[in-house]
Amino acid sequence: MYSKRFEKETFKEAVRENVRTLYRKNIAEASPQQIFQAVSYAVKDIIMDDWIATQKAYDEADAKAVYYMSMEFLMGRALGNNLINMTAYKEVKEALEEMDIDLNVVEDEEPDAALGNGGLGRLAACFLDSLSTLNYPAYGCGIRYRYGMFKQKIENGYQVETPDNWLKEGNPFELRREEYAKEVRFGGNVHFDKDPETGKDIFVQENYESVLAIPYDMPIVGYGNHVVNTLRVWDAKAITDFQLDAFDRGDYHKSVEQENLAKLIVDVLYPNDNHYAGKELRLKQQYFFISASLQTMLEKYKKKHSDVRKLYEKVAIQMNDTHPTVAVPELMRLLIDQEGLTWEEAWDVTTKTCAYTNHTIMSEALEKWPIDLFSRLLPRIYQIVQEIDRRFLIEVRAKYPGNEEKVRKMAILYDGQVRMAHMAIIAGYSVNGVAKLHTEILKHQELKDFYEMMPEKFNNKTNGITQRRFLLHGNQLLADWITNKIGDGWITDLAQIGKLKAYVDDEQARKEFMEIKYRNKVRLAAYIKKHNGIEVDPNSIFDVQVKRLHEYKRQLLNIMHVMYLYNQIKEHPEVSFYPRTFVFGAKAAAGYKRAKETIKLINSVADVVNNDRSINGKLKVVFIEDYRVSNAELLFAAADVSEQISTASKEASGTGNMKFMLNGAPTLGTMDGANVEIVDEVGIENAFIFGLSSEEVINYENHGGYNPTEIYFNDWEIKRVVDQLMDGTYANGNHEMYKDLYNSLLNTQCTDRPDTYFILKDFRSYADAQKKVEEAYKDKDRWSKMAMMNTASSGKFTSDRTIEEYVDDIWKLKKVFVKPVEE
Ligand code: 26W
């Protein structure tokens, strides 16, 4: 039982009362959405005591806290997860059943909070879950986008984006906190002056535009420990006439301008993943939430402490990729201009407070702001960046005398641009990659110069995922079964899942394990039937690739292999073939042409294959529309095979790979990102590994690429598939539809190298690995052992482990315990 107040009857009464006061209805009259709202308000009410108690405990302990700064928090739905972490899920389910309400239906009424694109945003969400569960004081700081990640519709095989109006019905879990609003200033000019009162030198910003930042708080409930941390996301509002300086009062133009800026600034999440577009509004978003968050952090610190020079004793700031890096100069500004510290004092504080995580080596993802834009928008911040750069380059020249090449390579300001990654590394006291391989590539390739100059900053923190959402909530059948076998310790200590290894040779246990997989496949099959109108056979192999659509993730390799299998089945119907269902789910950035073409290709192949009666349903292809956290939970639970087929070296870590593993799906993948560590844990015999190694890829890249035409002309089956992109087979006779994809593989007319992602190069080895998957699956005993070994070996990949490492090596936090409120 969660707390004394959590009596079933009291809860039921609260739901009834909420329906009555919110909608003037009774339960029978209320719509499912109204029930969702009423239930959620009742749940929030119960959370509230612990939320207050937690913040009070932090205050009393005066504990150090981490501020996790992120442009993205891909939270998904809150209701089910909150109930899980309150350890009240089953009781609430029962209570609602007694009122004739199905909790699953209620949960489905909640829109996903999709304030993120993919891996980086979901990682932030898993981290918050772990921080609360592990009793660490933490604040997530981000933006309350009016529109989150777009909704994806598939029309005639094409992706169509529609706005994600997730706040339409109101968000029952958030708290608007108008009284903690902060002003953020953009543009204008700065001049140097003397303070009329103190006579000290000061910087005065004039003719700026102001926006008011309004915080909304969302509770982050820890598992069974009464800790509730806060995710604070900022909304923007114009400064009203009343709040304008006397000088500006009644300036109509100015107030309209400010109104417009405010509306725009938090309007929408940029839906680019791993692609920097250099939009001015994005820089505004970054400065907006960083300035508001840092002002709040400082104010909170100063309530208890008078010496801001010791800020780092109570605060760690983690920058989730370069997106929040403007935190470095903004903290300097606050410390110097507002708190009166010297440059040296402020630099000492900043460089002991800020730490940076790198999530990608894709060069097109690097944030480099044009200096003219940056300095116009943030004039005072730009001055500070210049000074950071000037002082850093003195150090570089001292260390490498006469080496101006080094200076060019390492400077923050170069070639008319502000290089945010360089600033993050120079100012951060820690720089971490997100999987072992990724960190090694950072140290020895991408960030080599920085590693040589400051090796002590570099460290690895292999990513993780929360088993509370991705097993306990997403796969309740398996969760119960595991608890039955080994107890429930795994929920907060995933290493214990290793105890399942004792059952791998137990035939009965394996039968039960596979029976649960089957039931989850039936659940997914029903979802597919409902959403796609396609019948899939739960006895077929469910082979799943779900992740953002990107060339380096190679969905194209997967679908071309499906085309290859289809050719073989058509040609040799007599050859035995184990039925296979290929499931895809992926959003493409709206302007990413090749990615969108790939979605169309997948859907076209699906149309042809699914409607070809001659193949007896041996092959099915399904594209899951609008892949997001909520349907991801169903997909992981139901997968037999986890497709993790990125070009080696390109996927920093991957976290979907871990979610599949946890749910008992062996990895079919390259030696990339965290796949390497998955193989370390589960054993190479329990995975299907193929393709070039990262060294081989990097070596080719350093020597002008490779020649795909050779493969094309020497492997007729590959040639046939490539030609089918151009012969209209999957385009109703249209020869142009996939021309761009075809060209990306073979054509050197395009200025870049052909097949930069080594699709043809890895094709044969992928097809061979796929053949091995089929062989392994046919052997039920062998497969069930493999599947179970994956679940049993997934202990390392909990975000609880990752967070403990961040705490030990970077943040240095202490646990704070919260006493439950008794009545
Ligand atoms: C500026 C545009 C932009 C937007 C998002 C650039 C880069 C990003 C992210 C860094 C992309 C991302 O989500 N990266 C993923 O981060 C995960 C968490 O660490 C890793 O598991 C994935 O491998 C990595 O692709």
Could you explain how this protein is built, in words?
It contains 31 helices and 25 strands. 50% of the residues are buried. The longest helix has 30 residues, at 32-61. The mean pLDDT is 96. Helix 8 packs across helix 9 (327-338) and helix 20 packs across helix 27 (716-724). The protein has 823 residues and is of the alpha/beta class. The chain has three domains: 1-61 and 77-111, no CATH class; 62-76 and 112-463 and 806-810, Glycogen Phosphorylase B (Rossmann fold, 3-Layer(aba) Sandwich), CATH 3.40.50.2000; 469-690 and 761-797, Rossmann fold (3-Layer(aba) Sandwich). Strands 1, 4, 7, 8, 11, 12, 13, 14, 18 and 19 form a ten-stranded mixed sheet that branches. Strands 22-21-20-23-24-25 form a six-stranded parallel sheet, sandwiched between helices. Allosteric enzyme that catalyzes the rate-limiting step in glycogen catabolism, the phosphorolytic cleavage of glycogen to produce glucose-1-phosphate, and plays a central role in maintaining cellular and organismal glucose homeostasis. Belongs to the glycogen phosphorylase family. Its cofactor is pyridoxal 5'-phosphate.
Feature tags:
823 residues; alpha/beta; Rossmann fold; 3 domains; 10-stranded mixed sheet; globular; binds ligand 26W
Write the layout of secondary structure elements.
Elements: H1 8-23, H2 32-61, E1 65-69, E2 73-76, H3 79-85, H4 89-98, H5 103-107, E3 113-115, H6 119-133, E4 138-143, E5 151-155, E6 158-162, E7 175-176, E8 182-186, E9 189-194, E10 201-206, E11 209-221, E12 228-238, H7 252-265, H8 280-304, E13 315-320, H9 327-338, H10 343-353, E14 354-357, E15 368-370, H11 371-377, H12 379-399, H13 404-410, E16 413-414, E17 417-419, H14 420-427, E18 431-433, H15 436-446, H16 448-453, E19 458-460, H17 467-473, H18 476-486, H19 507-532, E20 541-546, H20 555-571, E21 580-585, H21 593-610, E22 619-624, H22 629-638, E23 641-644, H23 656-662, E24 667-669, H24 675-682, E25 688-689, H25 694-702, H26 708-714, H27 716-724, H28 739-746, H29 759-778, H30 780-792, H31 799-811
Parallel strand pairs: 1-4, 1-13, 4-12, 13-14, 14-18, 18-19, 20-21, 20-23, 21-22, 23-24, 24-25
Antiparallel strand pairs: 2-3, 5-6, 7-11, 8-11, 9-10, 11-12, 15-17, 16-17
Helix pairs in contact: 1-2, 1-4, 3-17, 6-31, 8-9, 9-10, 9-12, 11-12, 19-22, 19-30, 20-21, 20-27, 26-27
The site of ligand 26W has 23 residues, from helix 6.
Cofactor: pyridoxal 5'-phosphate
Modified residues (N6-(pyridoxal phosphate)lysine): 659
Organism: Mediterraneibacter gnavus (strain CC55_001C)
